[in-house]
Amino acid sequence: MNEKEYIPKCALSIHAHPDDQEFTVAGLLASWVQAGCEVVSAIVTSGGAGSNEPSRDEDYKLELEKLREVEQTAADAVIGIRETVFLRYPDGVLEPTMALRHDLTRVIRQYKPEAVVTADPQGVFYGNGYINHPDHRAAAQAALYAVFPSSETRLIFTDLLKVGLEPHKVKRLYVHGSEKSDTWVDIAKTIDIKISALRKHVSQLGDWDPEKMVREWAAEDGKDHRLEYAEAYKVMVLDQNDEVDKNISDSTP
Ligand SMILES: [Zn+2]
Question: How far is the CA of 247 from the centre of ligand 1 (A)?
Fold first, then answer.
């Protein structure tokens, strides 16, 4: 699929933890922002479990959550994201509940994004060294089903109608981390922004500079697609009229 020219007018980026967005999809978001797209970010937990420091105990969680929200807001400012919504679910024990799907449906109906960007709820193993964090899968699954059917179906979550939130149809869903990626987005012009945004998550990075790893991942994703740096996605086109328009523009020389 050639997504080179696709720029939504507005997009919503949904992730489990502060820093997930910067590790994964920030190159795409930055390129959309540069092309005039308004991006909103929804972060499901505020990352209160993100410390293994032996001197810290439960009392530290609230402090860490506040710190990580500041870091996320700073990262979003680097990317040019318009607004960040924190849903403040507990970190580390997230489940794809109906309550979470309801909250994400509310956010989608409020901001009416043309495109939603999230992770792949099916990703369990990445390589031989990383078991995907279950919060990532839970947030992604809730996001997926908030996009369809909940946000566009009038009689699901009718309480939202009572507060004026009418159904909204998302046209495209960008899923990062899929084994069935079909779209490789060129991020050569925005990889520096992605790295700068990621560096804002100081509480998680410590002294480690993520630049080398981010460049290696992006080079790996791009190498079979004649791209220096890329992010890989599975793209769902949920509005078939949109697909017709895209085909017409793709065939234009
Ligand atoms: Zn995470």
Answer: 35
